[in-house]
Design goal:
Keywords: Glycosyltransferase, Transferase. GO terms for molecular function: glycosyltransferase activity. It comes from Helicobacter brantae. By secondary structure, the protein is an alpha/beta fold. It contains nine helices and eleven strands. The protein has a seven-stranded parallel β-sheet with strand order 8-5-4-2-1-9-10, with helices on both faces. Strands 3-11 form a two-stranded antiparallel ribbon. The chain has a two-stranded antiparallel sheet with strand order 6-7. Helix 4 (111-124) packs antiparallel against helix 7 (190-201) and helix 5 packs parallel to helix 7. The longest helix has 21 residues, at 270-290.
């Protein structure tokens, strides 16, 4: 099995020491990886990982990325922490995105990782970042030689990335936190991510390396040795490259329901359902009265 590079989107992604990479490797990327202004790890991606709350936006954007040949993505993963039914716009996710894989299928193969994940979700309402989800997925798939970058534990703030996000972009409109430079995401903590990394280090035959000197990861992981006399060549992105979500045309979510979702209110909540049912009832009554 090839080595694999696990790449978060933190600032250290743009500061990789490419002489420390092996000649041939797979790559896992996540979330808004395509916002990068250079191909920091090339166009070919073994797996792209997305959050369930914005899966339609990401899948639709990925379709355009592939169509324009900006990236080649082999597999798509939805970051899940359990096997409960995931419904999007009234449809089971497997019925609308049948090729998307659930990361929970891999997490449950690693009992110690699964236990650590569930403990922190239940008692502290905390869960690992996408970089860690990619890490345990790679381990569960049998990767032994793993290189990490772009996992910076949000040292510069909750929206500190290797790229800039336009405050007027579709993603910032959908998720206003991207407009707030002081935003701190309380569900992610450095301590929890480090606990997962330490657990990975304890596994036999697993070798983890940092590939960005002077990064947060290089303080807890050994730097990979210099091993590539012909370093990886970083290509520029094409002019007019996609660096925002492309909004799906047929998402039927009402403005009211979308507002609830944007503020973290679960649409499955019994009280929210009652309000939505009441709204539908009022609409029906108005329609009947108008068409008497």
């Amino acid at each position: 099995m090839k080595p694999i590079v696990i790449a978060g989107n933190g600032p250290s992604l743009a500061q990789i020491d490419y002489s420390r990479l092996p000649k041939d490797f797979d790559v896992f990327r996540c979330n808004q990886f395509y916002f990068e202004d250079k191909y920091f790890l090339g166009k070919k991606i073994k797996g792209a990982f997305f959050n369930p709350s914005v899966l339609p936006e990401q899948i639709f954007t990925l379709h355009h990325l592939k169509e324009r040949r900006e990236y080649e993505v082999e597999d798509v993963y939805c970051s899940r922490s359990d096997d409960s039914e995931l419904v999007i716009e009234g449809n089971k996710v497997e019925n609308i995105f049948p090729s998307v894989k659930s990361t929970y299928d891999f997490l449950k193969k690693l009992p110690l990782f699964n236990e650590l994940d569930k403990f922190h979700r239940f008692f502290f309402h905390q869960w690992p970042t996408a970089g860690i989800v990619m890490l345990y997925t790679a381990i569960a798939q049998g990767y032994k030689e793993i290189y990490l970058t772009g996992i910076d534990f949000y040292g510069g703030g909750g929206i500190d990335y290797a790229f800039k996000i336009n405050p007027k972009s579709n993603i910032a409109t959908r998720i206003p936190a991207f407009r707030d430079s002081a935003f701190q995401d309380k569900v992610h903590t450095q301590n929890l991510d480090v606990a997962f990394i330490q657990l990975a280090l304890s596994l036999p035959d697993i070798k983890l390396h940092a590939i960005t000197p002077n990064s947060a990861l290089s303080e807890i992981l050994p730097l990979a040795p210099i091993q590539n006399p012909e370093p990886f060549k970083v290509e520029n992105k094409p002019q007019g490259y996609i660096c925002d979500w492309i909004k799906p045309p047929l998402l039927s979510c009402s403005p009211f329901k979308q507002k609830l979702k944007d503020n973290g209110i679960n649409g499955k909540n019994i009280y929210v359902k009652a309000v939505m049912d009441l709204i539908q009832l009022c609409k029906a009554v108005v329609y009947i009265l108008k068409n008497r």
